[in-house]
Specification:
By secondary structure, the protein is of the alpha+beta class. It has 11 helices and 26 strands. It has 3 domains: about 375 residues, Alkaline Phosphatase, subunit A; about 80 residues, Arylsulfatase, C-terminal domain (2-Layer Sandwich); about 110 residues, Galactose-binding domain-like (Jelly Rolls, Sandwich), CATH 2.60.120.260.
Length: about 600
């Protein structure tokens, strides 16, 4: 198979004829027949799988036959954009709005929590009579009122934090992709099997129950694979890829594209094993839909959340996860709906994560709630190949570390022809000096090889002004627009409340390092006496724990080897408050791992 951007189109042409039969419709019926019952919707989004990690996008070494076949049965968007990192994409996807409107700014230290007043696609569909379920990665808040079960999902089986293997892991489940401890409708529960298999298995069981009750469903399956860590991967698939030569020389080379020098075939084998495991589960999913007799009335969407988690083949594009060049923000987008979306239909119009919610609403015949303002627009007519008036627009992508977005810092603005960007780096809270804009004619130069910023200052100035207006608009969505949401305690919805480093506000050291510390912004729904248990790694010496909450301070001695300290009947006033715990061991201070609050 040839590589590069055109390879997916060529692949789709080869599959299209056979896929009409698989879709259960004739060419004459495709795009004209709708089922009477509201269609089911399944949205699958993988984590850190790049645009080039599929056979259908030109990767001739990875095995993804089920997703490749799905692409042949689907409508697709050729220029589909996501954010360069996890949580921002998820906020846009769930709300149809730019993440800067939702208070989601970053991926950790409290900046991946989404404003509870935002309206999610799950809330809208649930109100319309759908059953709604999430199975996998949420990454928009682990505590009330920001959990998926608080944001419209009637069934919720998710891991905490931004991934398994992070500080939000429940005790005993640290880094366990196999037999993980997940939050089952808010309660920790250990499951058997590999995490991706668990998500799909739970989703399919739940879909079967919904179908038996003649209920339409929305199933959101956001896997945490192939996000790291990579030590716990499907062993059989890993062994198969390990036996292959996955070095750079075996990947297709595109004009102007250079694979990275940091070639790591073993790591690549582990990632590919995780991706093929996802593909195997996609095959099981399609078989289940056939078994239940609901294939024709079920929409299945496949996409990824950002670029690849490492420098590897990305179909000729520059960049990877966290970059605003194409390799960091381009996603495949396949939309399978037999009888309504003709297999092989493809649109080159620009689209993005903000368009998914309005597209699903139109497909389901569910009206947008009155007063809800969206940034996205429905792309269903494009997926159906309809000839409609489609006005050009500019899509904006921006993400970087920190509490508050910085004008011009690590952004891209893309209209149908032009792309303006300042790739100042995701990992910094700010940038030095003046922005160094890059400008690309995406129609003539989709691989971003020829920077035209110096030659076309008129385009740079025009797009910069449009970006500035967008930045001001999203930054003024609500009062105190970038203040992080507060975690609630003292409610009937969550007791105990478990606080982790995922959502603390950073105060000292590197945010997740052992010597770091932070505090949590809370809201006490009622005044009263609370029990607070502070968990930490085994103390290496005798020491002290200092608890500060609701304007009060209290300390407790700890002995070498202890792993927790308990404070009972701690008075906390009603309203906003701040909690911080500090361990002092041999004159060194650090924060806890988890804090459990009950009442």
């Amino acid at each position: 198979m040839s590589s590069g951007i055109l390879s997916r189109r060529d692949f789709l042409k080869g599959l299209c004829a056979g896929s009409l039969a698989l879709a259960g419709c004739s060419p004459q019926l495709a795009g004209t027949r709708r089922a009477k019952k509201m269609p089911n919707v399944i949205l699958v989004m993988t984590d850190d799988q790049g645009y080039g990690d599929l056979g259908v996008t030109g990767n001739n070494l990875i095995r993804t036959p089920n997703i490749d076949a799905m692409a042949g049965r689907s409508g697709s968007m050729e220029n589909f954009y996501v954010s360069p990192v996890c949580a921002p994409t998820r906020a846009c996807l769930m709300t149809g709005r730019y993440n800067y409107r939702t208070r989601v700014v970053d991926t950790w230290v409290g900046r991946a929590m989404m404003e509870p007043q935002e309206t999610t696609v799950a809330e809208i569909l649930r109100e319309a009579g759908y059953e709604t379920g999430i199975f996998g990665k949420w990454h928009l808040g682990d505590n009330y009122p920001m959990r998926p079960m608080d944001q419209g999902f009637s069934e919720s089986v998710v891991h905490r934090g931004g991934g398994i293997g992070q500080p939000a892991d429940p005790p005993g489940g640290e880094g366990k992709y196999t037999d993980p401890i997940l939050m089952d409708n808010g309660q920790p529960k250990q499951f058997k099997g590999y995490c991706t298999d668990v998500y799909f298995g739970k989703a399919m069981s739940w879909m079967s129950e919904c179908t038996a009750q003649s209920k339409s469903f929305f199933a959101y399956i956001p896997t945490n694979a192939p996000h790291g860590p990579f030590d716990d991967v499907p062993e059989d698939l890993y062994e198969k890829y390990k036996a292959m030569d996955l070095s750079n020389r075996n990947f297709p080379q595109d004009k102007g594209h250079k694979l990275p020098a940091d070639d790591d075939p073993d790591n690549r084998a582990r990632i590919f094993a995780m991706i093929t495991n996802i593909d195997d589960n996609m095959g099981k999913l399609f078989a289940k839909l056939d078994q239940l007799g609901i294939t024709e009335n079920t929409i299945v969407i496949f996409m990824v959340d950002n670029g690849p988690n490492g420098r590897r083949y990305v179909a000729g594009f520059k960049g990877m996860k966290s970059h605003v060049h194409e390799g960091g923000i381009r996603s495949p987008f396949f939309f399978q709906w037999p009888g309504v979306v003709r297999p092989g239909t493809s649109s080159d119009r620009i689209a993005a994560h903000i368009d998914v919610l309005p597209t699903i609403l139109e497909a389901c015949g569910v009206p947008k709630p009155n007063g809800l303002e969206l940034d996205g627009r429905s792309i269903l007519p494009l997926l159906q190949g309809k000839k409609i008036a489609w006005h050009d627009r500019t899509i904006y992508i921006q993400s970087h570390r920190g509490d508050v977005p910085v004008l011009y810092h690590h952004f891209a603005a893309r209209n149908q022809r032009w792309k303006l960007l300042h790739g100042s780096g995701f990992g910094r809270e700010n940038f030095e000096g003046q922005p160094e804009f890059e400008l690309y004619d995406m129609a003539a130069d989709p691989l971003e090889q020829n920077d035209l910023a110096a030659e076309r200052p008129d385009i740079v100035i025009a797009m910069r002004k449009e970006y500035e207006a967008w930045f001001a608009d999203v930054s003024g969505t609500r009062a105190d627009n970038y203040a992080p949401p507060k975690i609630y305690i003292g409610t009937a919805h969550e007791n105990p409340v478990v606080l982790t480093r995922q959502d603390w506000r950073h105060a000292k050291g590197r945010p997740w390092a052992g010597d770091s510390n932070g505090y949590w912004e809370l809201y006490a729904a009622k005044a009263g006496k609370y029990d607070i248990k502070i968990d930490f790694p085994a103390a290496t010496t005798d020491g002290e724990v200092l608890l500060e909450v609701s304007g009060r301070k209290i300390s407790q001695t700890i002995e070498k080897g202890e792993t927790s300290a308990k404070f009972t009947d701690m008075p906390i006033d009603k309203g906003p408050t701040r909690l911080m715990a500090t361990l002092t061991l041999a004159k060194a201070t650090k924060g806890p791992w988890h804090v459990n609050i009950s009442w």
